[in-house]
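Lecture notes, continued. The same structure-token format from the folding unit now serves as the input rather than the output. Read the line below as a description of shape only.
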């Protein structure tokens, strides 16, 4: 198969050495090597420096553009994308906060088989492999991201995508009647409200990054639900004696207010454009696939902030915007990310056994520093979600009982 690649052109791109790079397009054509198959493959790639994007033409003669920042953010290697939880472990804000202009230093395309392993390290920056079935991008720090063509094509950045749920019968008609026979096996069996608590403990084959011992960047819980948990409770049962394992908390409403004052355009973008969040995989109840598009900053009446949603590890690699808009969104995302990580905006607390913390999951972000477990020392929290409806109900009952004024 690789012998069919003999017509491949070879280009090398060194950005700092080329004048007028903004007008320079680099292209390799794979038309001559395309196989007669229905499989979607890459026909050609171009790099347009001015647009900070990789242009990909597919073997069906359609084309799409992918910002380099998008490609770096969505690397699928085991270092950047956690294999068992199927969540992004790449710390986007930490790595890219000052690198919106990230791009490969060089573009070099040729058949992988013709290169000795040691040559490849510096020689391939963008490489179309296996007759266009994969694109490999090597970043300035030598990190390599390999993208399967069909995976990448299914994530093409276009505003035409519609992930609304309006196509289901229930959404169209509003009501569905099932008889007993049709009902068999159709009742959803799994939701976070079914279980009474969740256990935050490092475990092998974790289905969530919370259940590893690595850094857990600031986030709000479960934004992939339409009906997100109102309050999170974390109860410390066991804590590591070594360093790490502390929790960080940041007030998202305060960060939003700072953003509104200092950078109103970014505030407007984050309060009008959604990121989709996903959680998929398998657990004891079977396969699950949750998805919901949310605004980072959700405004209510009188434009006050009513919800803040931020969660890098479950932010979807599918973006519902054009390539240009995705670049604006990444700029905005990194701007609010920098603000959230400003030490002046954070409090840190390492819980000891017996401590419990609760917070408004629509307002306060929480994170955790990495820790080391030993045979003698582990970290074990029990978590619980409550809905505000239950909390307010209880507060009204108590307010009445103790004759305390309470609002609506
Ligand atoms: Fe969490
Ligand atoms: Zn990676």
């Amino acid at each position: 198969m690789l012998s069919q690649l003999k017509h491949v052109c070879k280009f090398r791109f060194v950005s700092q050495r080329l004048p007028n790079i903004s007008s320079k397009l680099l292209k390799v054509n794979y038309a001559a090597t395309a196989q007669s198959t229905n499989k979607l493959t890459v026909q050609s790639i171009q790099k347009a420096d001015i647009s900070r994007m990789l242009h990909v033409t597919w073997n069906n003669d359609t084309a799409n553009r992918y910002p380099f920042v998008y490609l770096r953010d969505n690397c699928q290697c085991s270092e950047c994308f956690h294999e068992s939880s199927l969540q992004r472990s790449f710390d986007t804000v930490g790595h890219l906060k000052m690198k919106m202009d990230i791009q490969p230093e060089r573009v070099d395309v040729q058949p992988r088989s013709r290169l000795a392993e040691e040559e490849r390290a510096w020689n391939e920056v963008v490489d179309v492999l296996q007759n266009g079935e994969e694109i490999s991008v090597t970043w300035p720090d030598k990190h390599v991201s390999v993208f399967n063509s069909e995976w990448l094509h299914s994530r093409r950045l276009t505003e035409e995508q519609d992930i609304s749920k309006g196509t289901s019968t229930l959404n169209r008609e509003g009501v569905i009647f099932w008889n007993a026979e049709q009902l068999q096996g159709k009742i959803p069996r799994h939701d976070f409200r079914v279980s009474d608590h969740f256990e935050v403990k490092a475990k092998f084959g974790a289905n969530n990054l919370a259940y590893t011992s690595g850094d857990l960047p600031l986030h709000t819980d479960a934004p992939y639900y339409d009906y997100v948990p109102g309050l999170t409770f974390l109860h410390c049962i066991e804590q590591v004696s070594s360093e790490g394992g502390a929790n960080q908390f940041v007030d998202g409403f305060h960060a939003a207010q700072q953003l509104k004052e200092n950078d109103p355009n970014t505030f407007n973008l984050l309060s009008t454009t959604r990121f989709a969040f996903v959680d998929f995989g398998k657990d004891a109840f079977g396969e699950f696939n949750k998805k919901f598009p949310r605004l980072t900053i959700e405004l209510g009446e009188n434009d006050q902030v009513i919800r803040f949603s931020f969660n890098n590890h479950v932010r979807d690699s599918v973006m519902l915007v054009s390539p240009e808009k995705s670049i604006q969104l990444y700029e905005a995302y990194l701007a609010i990310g920098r603000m959230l990580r400003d030490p002046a905006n954070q409090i840190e607390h390492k819980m000891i056994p017996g401590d419990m913390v609760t917070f408004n999951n629509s307002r306060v972000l929480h994170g955790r520093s990495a820790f080391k477990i030993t045979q003698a020392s582990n970290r074990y929290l029990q978590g619980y979600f409550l809905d505000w409806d239950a909390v307010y109900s209880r507060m009204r009952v108590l307010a009445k009982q103790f004759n305390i004024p309470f609002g609506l």
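Point for the exam: The radius of gyration is 24 Å.
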